[in-house]
Amino acid sequence: MTNSLEVLDHVRLNFTTSGLLFLNIALALIMFGVALDIKIEHFQNILRKPKSFIMGFISQSFLLPAFTFLLVLALNPTPSVALGMILVAACPGGNISNFISSMARANIALSVSLTAASTSAAIFFTPFNFWLWGSFYINFYNKHSAESLLRPLEIDKLQMFQTVFILLGIPVIIGLYIAKRYPELTKKIKKPINRGSLLFFILMVIAMLSANFSQFTSYVHLVFILVLLHNGLALATGYFFSKLMKLPQGDQRTISIETGIQNSGLALALIFNPKIFPPEMELGGMAIIAAWWGIWHIISGLTVAFIWARRPILA
After folding, report:
1. Which of 109, 153, 232, 269 is the most exposed place for a label (fewest CB within 10 A)?
2. Rounded Cα gap, residues 135 and 100, in angstroms
């Protein structure tokens, strides 16, 4: 597998500075829209029934990055592909997880609470998890690979923290303030902003993919199985961990979806920030992984929701 994936390391995708700026704006608008849906009651629910929330947070922020590390050791992809998988696992839950949870007849209040918490905590956990598990991977690679050419993971953690805070933290803070301060205005703008920002984001992803269509179609087959396995692992981790913890069935569905739907848009925004990942690092595999994740987790999430929607939740 490693030999066939090596070509990805040298792939240079055409992402302009203006294109990246618009992608960042779209992502920030989505996070702003997510914040408008967050209510004080969601956090009160956490305090009243903390077990499901705590298990969901553990699944997403601790278990998924750790299991991803074990998966890359087992599959042995190239370093850039492995680091792409680790970065996606380090990102918070995706913005469509709440919609998919509602389709799956899951616990929507828990879904919104976990999205809010993982998005807020991502300011710390995304840089930390990527640095921690990425460093473990590089150390392992250097010990067991004949090449042993990888240097220690020297990303600018402060720059990554700043980027995540700007893209996630600031929009969420502003959204929470407006929702609290102007409830009537929030009711009027919530749906248009959520729908418009998601459409804007989709259009930006399509535009960026169309600029790299030949590269994407030429290489996506190389990562198809990897993303399929990785996303399947994420969904299974959330489901079976919550089942092991004997949570209600609706909460099991929610935690599975929250763990399996990752904010790969954030991963792309980080990958194409030259201050975090300089172009000379040749990390084309990271970008291909994150881009295909962004498409595949929607397909898998909707498929799971379609199946669960037709199965009643047992008491």
Report:
1. 232
2. 33
* Domain residue ranges in the chain: 2-309
Question: How many residues are present in the chain?
Answer: 315
The SS3 assignment for 96 reads: coil
SS3 state of residue 147? coil
At 29-75, the pLDDT tens digits run 777 877 777 766 666 766 777 899 999 999 999 999 999 999 999 99
Instruction: Kindly tell me the burial class for residue 74, based on how many C-beta atoms sit within 10 Å of its own C-beta (0-12, 13-18, 19 or more).
Output: exposed
Nearest-CA neighbor of 225 among 119, 99, 108, 81? 81
H helices, E strands: number in the chain? 15, 0
Domain 2-309 has CATH 1.20.1530.20: yes
Q: Alpha-carbon distance 67 to 85, whole Å?
A: 11
Report d(CA 134, CA 138) in Å as an integer: 6
> pLDDT at residue 255 above 90?
yes
Which contacts of 135-140 are long-range, i.e. CB under 8 A and separated by 24 or more positions?
136/69, 137/69, 137/72, 137/73, 137/79, 137/82, 137/83, 137/86, 138/79, 140/73
For residue 20, what is the enclosing H or E element?
helix 17-36
Q: Can you name the residues that pair with 98 across neighbouring β-strands?
A: none
> 216: which residues sit within 8 A by CB, 6+ positions away?
209, 288, 291
Do 261 and 94 touch, CB atoms closer than 8 A?
Answer: yes
Taking the CB of residue 205, how many other CB atoms lie within 10 A of it? 18
Q: Name the pTM for this structure.
A: 0.84
For residue 130, pLDDT beyond 60: yes
Instruction: Return phi, psi of residue 93, to 5°.
Output: -65, 150
